[in-house]
Predict the structure.
Amino acid sequence: MKSSTGTRNLPENKWLIDDVFHELRSILSGILSSVELIELYAARPGSEEKINRQAGSVKLQVTELEFQLQNVKIIQHILNNTLRPHLAPVNILHTLEAFVQDERYGFLFSQGVSFQVNTENEMAEVDELLLKQMVLNMAYRMMKNAMINDQPSMSFIFDADQLTISARYTANGTVSSTLRAFTGEDRLYAGAFMDQRICQLIAMIAEMHGGSFGIEVEQERNVEMLVKMPLSIT
């Protein structure tokens, strides 16, 4: 059985900031824990490997912190009704290929990313900052909500006049308290609809680029987030 949702079912913008601040608190707590472990290991001979592991963890958490602070900035503009995308023609294929190869996000994109190019049209009118933030939000949602040992995948599919971004994963099934706006049937697919307020942000960015966002679920936990955006007419 398949269930799906679009932006009409997503929660109001005013609660977005609460979700992001919850994420920020979690990140800062993780950084503090890693620092405390580094201090503990530093007092023990032969703990270099453990210290390096915790230092690597701090680096990843700082990267996520930077990402979430950018979310805060965008949400502030949304709440103030001042978010205006600065659209410009770019080779979106080259932009996305370079982005997923950025070493800062290797833990998100090192596996499971593919490009399917079925057209010579690689141009689109986009705001690069918002586009990258949208992709990061999709990738982080997958990482946080996928089952342990799952292998999420993200595909960038270029057709004649459309870019489709498909993010697939198997949900961990945790029920989210943000599902109040969903029907009883939707609650059966709770794992698929995690972080709906952040999904609202993804949807808004897609719509600012003339596109759309939706979530499809099969067999209760097999989730696909879909963004569809127009390519420039050549």
The mean pLDDT is 81. DSSP finds seven helices and eight strands in the chain.
